[in-house]
């Protein structure tokens, strides 16, 4: 009797799941790998002290894509920093982003504009010529062009960066390396929830040309993950959901020119 009851229960569960699948349609997850790309960038930064332990900086960065064959985007950034003590600082910032869309035909490409607001919480310690720092950056991307269905209007992320610097004695050179992990905090419906959208590995060198100028040359290796959701909606609700998980490996060579006043 117990065996018959178990069989009936299993059949009913299968029938219920089959009916639910028929009603909700198909849910399919596809994983694809996008060809790797070389995306160099260059930026200029100006920093001005405005009060004790306070400073303001403005930066403009131009990025390229498709193996450096065309412009990808331009970032215009302003930041206000406060050094609370020798080992902790807070920076708030705003970035105006101009992003060139990825149309295959030149005349179909157009600029999209979005805004980013972020807060950097940085702790650091020094050991002789070594410096170790940890930076936590919560941020939000405001995208007026998004439809709120396939792309979030407000994209929230948090990025964690662990960095080590070494001041080479009797030189003006400072090599450094860091690892940064970027996590999404919200995703579109049926996107599978928050995920790691980028891992970044960096090797760089900073050269103090003078008291007012420095130059940085760096290399990034990025592992980027993205998710694209498409579905059909009707009177019976949402059905035929397709979640495409994409991964791409990016090589970035960057050059930074920094100017500042003591």
Automatic annotation (TrEMBL):
Pfam families, per the entry: DUF2490
- Keyword Signal belongs to the record: yes
Q: Which UniProt keywords apply?
A: Signal
> Could you say which residues form the signal peptide?
1-22
Key word Signal present: yes
- What InterPro entries does the record tag this protein with? DUF2490
Domain of life assignment:
Bacteria
Q: What is this protein called?
A: DUF2490 domain-containing protein
Native organism: Candidatus Coprenecus stercoravium
